[in-house]
What we know:
heterodimer; A: alpha/beta; 17% strand; globular; B: alpha/beta; Rossmann fold; 2 domains; 7-stranded mixed sheet; 5-stranded mixed sheet; 19% strand
Amino acid sequence: MAVVFEKTKMLTDVPFHYCPGCTHGIAHRLVAECIEEMGLQDKAIGVAPVGCAVFAYNYFNCDMMEAAHGRAPAVATGAKRVHKDKLVFTYQGDGDLASIGAAEIVHAAGRGEKISTIFINNAIYGMTGGQMAPTTLVGQVTTTSPYGRQKEHCGSPLRMSEMLATIDGAYYIERVSLHDVPHIIQAKKAIKKAFTYQMEGKGFSMVEILSTCPTNWGMTPTGAIEWLKENMIPYYPLGVKKEGE
Amino acid sequence: MAKKLMKGSEAIAEAAIQAGCRYFFGYPITPQNEVPEYMSRRMPQVDGCFLQAESEVAAINMVYGAAGAGARVMTSSSSPGISLKQEGISYIACAELPCVVVNIVRTGPGLGGIQPSQGDYFQATKGGGHGDYHLVVLAPSSIQEAADMVMEAFDIADMYRNPVMILGDGMIGQMMEPVEFHQPPKREIPEKTWAATGWDGTRERAIINSLYIEPEVMQVVSDRLQKRYELIKQNETRVEEYKMEDAEYCIAAYGTTARVAKSAVNKAREMGIKAGIIRPKTVWPFPSEAFCKAADQVKGFLTVEMSAGQMVEDVRLAVNGKKPVEFYGVMGGFLPTPNAILEKLIQLKEGK
C-alpha cells in the first residue's frame, strides 16, 4: 500500500504533554517538518524555554538544550558561536521571551545573532496556571488580572515583532497564526524562511506564532480559535515586519 | 619560556588561552575589566570568540550554551556580577557542564566597594545558587599560581564535568608579578560525547538539561553529583603548609592574606614563637584533614581573612573543638598588616 502520510522523523515518539486544543503541537510539527524538509536533521541544535514548551527537548529529535527562564537566546548564542555551520533555534513562549527574557532577545537581535527564534504568543502564562503575560490583552481575565488587565495599572501588551523589527541586526521577523489551515501553511513557510536565512548567514530571524491556550483562557478549543481570530489578530497584526537589511 | 611581568587579570586571561579556551563571554565590572579587555584583543588572534554580553546573566548563559556545545569556555566577573551569574552557575552544575568562572572579589554586600576582599567565600564554597551543588574553587595567592590554577581548572572541569571557580581577591587581579605559562600535568580527560554538536544518529541524542521532573530521576542525578563531589574531595584537595613541622601556633589563611601571614610568621619566629601556616589552595574541597591533623600538634589556630569571618567556620569544623580557633578579619577593602597578625598571634599564645 502506498504511504500517503508519515509523521516527520524530526519528532520523537514521546507523546506531547500539551492540553487538548493547545496549538503547541502544531507549532512543534511545523518546526520539525521544516528541519526535515530542509535536510538539516544532523545540523539542528534546539534550545527549549521555561514554560509550557519546557519539555521540547523530549519531542524534537535533534540535539537539544534546556535553558533557564528567558535565557534561550543567550544559550543559543553560545552554541551558535561554537558551531557556526549549525541550525540553532530557540522555541520560547511569551513569558519567557517578552518578560523575563526581554533583554536576551533584544540583544540577540541587536548582535544580528545567526539564530532563529520560534515565539509562541498565547497571551498568557500557561505552565504556571494562567497568569498575566506581557502579551495579555487589555481587559483579558487571568489569574493575576482577575478584573481584566487594566492599562492604567500595568500598561498595554508588548508587540515584540514590531519592536524587534526596528533593530538593524534582525533580518527577518514575521507574525503568523495557527487559527486555520491557510494560516498554518503560511506559518510553515515563515519558519522555513527563517531557517533558510539563518543558514545563509543573514542575521537574526524570528517567527511569532499566535497560539491558543483553551485551558487557561477557559474556553473550548474551537472557542479559543475564534477568540484568537477576533481579539488577538486585531492587536497583533499578521505579516512580515521585516525582511532584509 | 621567559618570565613576563603581567597584571593578574591579564595573566588569568592568557592562561585560559594557553589552556585552549577559545570562548569568552563577559560583562564589564571593576576590578576585573582587564580580563575581558585582554580577551577582546587576544581571542581574534587565536580564532577564538570574545563576546561582550548584555549582562552577567546573559554571559553565564552563553557559557552554558558554549559548554553544552562542547567548547572550553570561561567567564569572569567581580562580586556583584558573580551574584547575577548564580542562577546560571546552578544550572551549569546540574547540567554537568565544564567551564571556568573567575571571581576577582571586591567588597560587599551590595555594590560595596572596588577594593580587595574575601567576602565571597561563603558564596563560592557553600553553593551561591540554589540546590545541592558545589563548584571546585581554586584560590591563588600569587599571579603565577593564578595562571597555573586557571590552566589546570579547565582540565579539572572537563574531567569531572563540573564548573570550576577561580576565587581571587582584588589584589590577585590588580597586582603585577613575573609569570610563565606551564601546561599542567597530563590528565585522562574523557571525550565530550555528551555535547550538543548536531546529531547524526551515531551516538545518543544530546540533551543538555537541568530539569528532572520525576523525583526518582532527580534523586539519581543528585546521587551522581554527590558521588562526584566525594571523588573531587579525594583527588583534588590542595593545601600548602609553611613552617608547620614544629609549629605550635597555626595561621589559617588563603589568597593574598596568606602572603601577609607569611611575613607575620617569620617575625613571630624571630621572637621565638613557633608559628606556621596552613593555606588552602582549594577552598572547596576544603583541606579539612590538614587542619584536623594539625589540631593534634599545635596549641591554637588563628584564621585571618579579609572578611567578617567565613573560612573560619570551616577551620572550626575541621578542628572540631580540639583546640581554640581565633579569628582576625579586616573589611572595607583593607589588607591585614603583618604586625596586626603578629599581635593576634601573641594574644593567642598568651591565651588572651
